[in-house]
């Protein structure tokens, strides 16, 4: 099929429309669940602190917390190593964990976490250390 054909142009226009729609909808969905306030502490607007300012494990919130332990961690579109890479997280990066599920085994660990930090992406639990309360099941 030539790129000059009407069918090819229609397919490209449809793909571009879907890309624009997903780019607009993804941040809106992420905003519903909270975003990082940009402070270096990695805290989320008081959601992880009790009235005394102490970390409370996030039990009253929708998210668990974690820190990346791999030098670079590829965050993917599905809980397997063959899926599309959405973004890269680096060692020491604090992440929110929406939920956990089983997926492809990574060094003997089948657990994967869904991370809503800006983009909804899956990270292998083998390389994310949970801080406080464990995440809920998806």
Shape: elongated
By DSSP (H or I, 4+ residues per run), the number of helices equals 1
Radius of gyration: 18 Å
Outline the low-pLDDT stretches.
19-60
* Percent of residues in β-strands: 25-35%
CATH superfamily of the largest domain: SH3 Domains
Describe this structure in words.
With 138 residues, the protein is an alpha+beta fold. It has 2 domains: 1-32; 37-138, SH3 type barrels (Roll), CATH 2.30.30.40. Helix content is 20%, strand content 31%. The chain has one helix spanning 6-32, and strands at residues 64-68, 72-76, 85-90, 94-97, 99-106, 109-115, 121-124, 128-131. The strands form 3 sheets. Strands 4-1-8 form a 3-stranded antiparallel sheet, with no helix packed on it. A 3-stranded antiparallel sheet has the order 5-6-7, with no helix packed on it. Strand 2 and strand 3 form a beta hairpin. The longest helix is centred in the first third of the chain and has 27 residues, at 6-32. The chain is elongated, with a radius of gyration of 18 Å. The termini are far apart. Mean pLDDT is 73; it is low at 19-60.
């Amino acid at each position: 099929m030539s790129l000059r054909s009407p069918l090819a142009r229609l397919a490209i226009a449809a793909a571009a429309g879907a890309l624009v729609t997903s780019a607009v909808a993804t941040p809106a969905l992420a905003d519903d669940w909270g975003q990082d306030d940009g402070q270096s502490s990695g805290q989320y607007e008081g959601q992880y602190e009790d009235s005394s300012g102490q970390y409370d494990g996030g039990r009253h919130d929708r998210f668990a917390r974690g820190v990346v332990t791999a030098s670079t961690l590829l965050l993917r579109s599905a809980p397997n190593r063959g899926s599309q890479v959405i973004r890269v997280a680096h060692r020491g990066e604090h992440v929110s964990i929406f939920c956990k599920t089983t997926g492809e085994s990574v060094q003997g660990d089948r657990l994967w976490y869904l991370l809503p930090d800006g983009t909804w992406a899956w990270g292998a639990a083998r390389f994310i250390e949970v801080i406080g309360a464990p995440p809920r099941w998806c």
